[in-house]
Design brief:
Blueprint lengths: L2 H16 L3 H5 L2 E9 L10 E4 H12 L8 E10 L2 E11 L5 E13 L2 E9 L1 H8 L9
Parallel strand pairs: 1-6
Antiparallel strand pairs: 1-2, 3-4, 4-5, 5-6
Pfam families: SnoaL_2 (PF12680)
InterPro entries: NTF2-like_dom_sf (IPR032710), SnoaL-like (IPR037401)
Protein name: Nuclear transport factor 2 family protein
């Protein structure tokens, strides 16, 4: 696939997620897809590499209750080369405790044969921990 097709796959992923179409978003991933988040797992429990299924379960079980009104995501840039698509984005939310979560991300998607095989997520881990992880210690799994 070409870079335009790869960018379209990533854009479709975010379109499905923004509409709450989890099954359609999941269908864009390879069966053995992984999701890696920057940080030291012992210090930032979201950090590390997981299967897509494990990553999603952690988000549903641990983070979703802390963000009762969801998260507004804005893609601010997308660049592709070969089988990789880089996404710059911003998330904004108010937490259950009333704190503001406003983080910026860089995600690197690896696309092969029309499916997402891996995601690497970079973010301000200090802000995420401060705003989202109050009282959550150790790895969630």
């Amino acid at each position: 696939m070409g870079i335009d097709e790869n960018k379209a796959i990533v854009q479709r992923y975010y379109d499905h997620v923004s509409r709450g179409e989890r099954a359609e978003a999941d269908a864009l991933f390879a069966d053995d897809a992984t999701w890696w988040v920057a940080g030291i797992p012992e210090q930032f429990p979201i950090a590390g590499q997981r299967s897509l299924t494990e990553h999603q379960a952690m988000l549903r079980e641990k983070l979703a209750p802390r963000l009762p009104n969801g998260v507004r995501t804005t893609i601010t840039g997308m660049t592709a080369e070969g089988d990789r698509v880089a996404v710059e984005m911003e998330n904004f939310a108010r937490t259950a405790s009333g704190r503001i979560y406003n983080n910026r991300f860089h995600l690197l998607f690896e696309i092969r044969d029309g499916r997402i095989h891996a995601v690497r997520e970079y973010l301000d881990t200090l802000h995420a921990e401060d705003a989202l992880l109050d009282g959550w210690t150790g790895r969630p799994d």
